[in-house]
Amino acid sequence: MKGEFDHFMQKEIFEQPEAISSTMRGRLVLDVLGAAERVMLGGMSQFAATIRRSRRIILCGCGTSYNSAIAIRQLFEELTELPVTLELASDVLDRRCPFFRDDTCIFISQSGETADTLKALEYAKAKGALCVGIVNTVGSAISRATDCGVHINAGAEIGVASTKAYTCQIVAMVLVALSLSEDSRSKHTRRDDIMQGLLKLPGCVKECLKMDAILLELAQELKEEHSLLIFGRGFNYATALEGALKVKEVALVHSEGILAGEMKHGPLALVDKHMPIIVVCTNDGSYEKQQSVVQQLKARDGRLILIVSDDDTEMEKTAPDAVILRVPKVEDCLQAVVNIVPLQLLSYHLTVLRGHNCDQPRNLAKSVTVE
Ligand code: UD1
Ligand code: M6R
C-alpha cells in the first residue's frame, strides 16, 4: 500500500500533484488549444444561483479543514463579493451561532464523518441555511446530509495528519469560487489568470517536492528544538497555521502559526537568538509588509527560515543569515497550495528524526467521531 514510501504521510505528501489533478479532472474544462476555458461542477450547477443570492457565505470545519477555509476566504470574498465568515464547527455549537435561511454554509471535511462538523451541519440545516459539502469521502455522512457539494477526489488519506486533502480542499474551493463568479465581466481577466494558474499547479507542487533533501537537512538542524514559530499573512496566514498544526501533531514540537500583522502585539517578545522562526514571504500583495517583518525579526536576532518565491532577490539581502527556501511562484490565491509543501516535508522529517510515529500520532484518531 505504501509502495516505495516508508510512511503513509510521506506517500500522501508526494501524491499531491496527482491528487490535485484529480480534483480538477473534468471540472476545469479546456479549449481546443489546451487553455482552461471554464469550470464545470456537476454537483453545484443547480444551486449556484441560490448561493449567489445568499446574504453571506459561512465556511465551517475543524483542524486542517478549517485551515483550508482560512486559505480560501480572501478569494471567496473577492470573486463572490459576499461577506464570508469562518466558523470552527465546535464553536458554532458552543455559541449557537445565528444562522439564517438566506445563508450558505460550506462544510469542509476530509472524512465527512467529523462529529463537530456533522452536528454544525445539522444545526445549520435546522436554521434553514443552504448546506454545501467539500468532502473527500464519497457516501460519508456529511456528503449525504448536504444539499449539494463537491467531492475533492484526493483518494484515500490514511495518515492521521491531513496533507493532500488540505491542498485538494483549497483547489476544490477555488473551483467553487470561480463557478460562482462566472457571470462577472469585471472579473474575467482575474478568473482567467486563476484558471491558467490552476493548470500549472500540479507541476509547481511537483517542483516543490524536489526540495525534500533540503527539508531533511533543515529537520536535522531543528530536531532538538522545543518551539517553532511560523509567521504568515494574507493568503498565507493559513500556511502558517497549517504548518504549525503539522509540526505539533506529528513531530510533537510546540509550534505556533501567527498572523504576521499581530507580531508586535505580543509574539515579538518570544524572539531571541535561540528561537527558530519560519516566515512565509512569497511574492504577493503582502510582500513589502513581510519584508518589514523579516527586518524586525532579524533586529531581534531571530533564527530565520524564509519561504520565498523562486525569482526573489530581495529577501536574502534583507536577512543574509537566513535559511532560504525557494518555491515556484503561482497566482497569489493558489500560492498557499505550493507553500505548505515544504512545511509538510519538514514536519514529516522532524517526526521521523525524533523517533515518533507520523501515521498514528499519540492521542489522535484519523476521524474524530465524538464531540
Ligand atoms: C459525478 C460522479 C463522478 C462522475 C461525474 C461525471 C459521484 C460521487 N461522482 O462527479 O463519479 O465521473 O459525475 O459527470 O458519483 N455532493 C453533496 N455533498 C458533498 C459532495 C457532493 O451533496 O459534500 C453531491 C453533489 O452535489 C453531486 C454528487 O454529490 O450531486 C456528486 O458530487 P461530485 O462527485 O462532486 O460530482 P461530479 O464531479 O459531477
Ligand atoms: O475529516 P476532517 O477533515 O473533518 O477532520 C478534521 C480534523 O479532525 C483534521 O483535519 C485534523 O485536524 C487532522 N489531524 C489534521 O492533520
TrEMBL record:
GO terms for molecular function: carbohydrate derivative binding; glutamine-fructose-6-phosphate transaminase (isomerizing) activity. The chain holds residues 410 to 780 of 780 of the full protein. It comes from the Eukaryota. GO terms for biological process: amino sugar biosynthetic process; fructose 6-phosphate metabolic process; protein N-linked glycosylation; UDP-N-acetylglucosamine metabolic process. It comes from Bathycoccus prasinos. This is glutamine--fructose-6-phosphate transaminase (isomerizing). Residues 47-187, 218-361 form the SIS domain. Keywords: Aminotransferase, Glutamine amidotransferase, Repeat, Transferase.
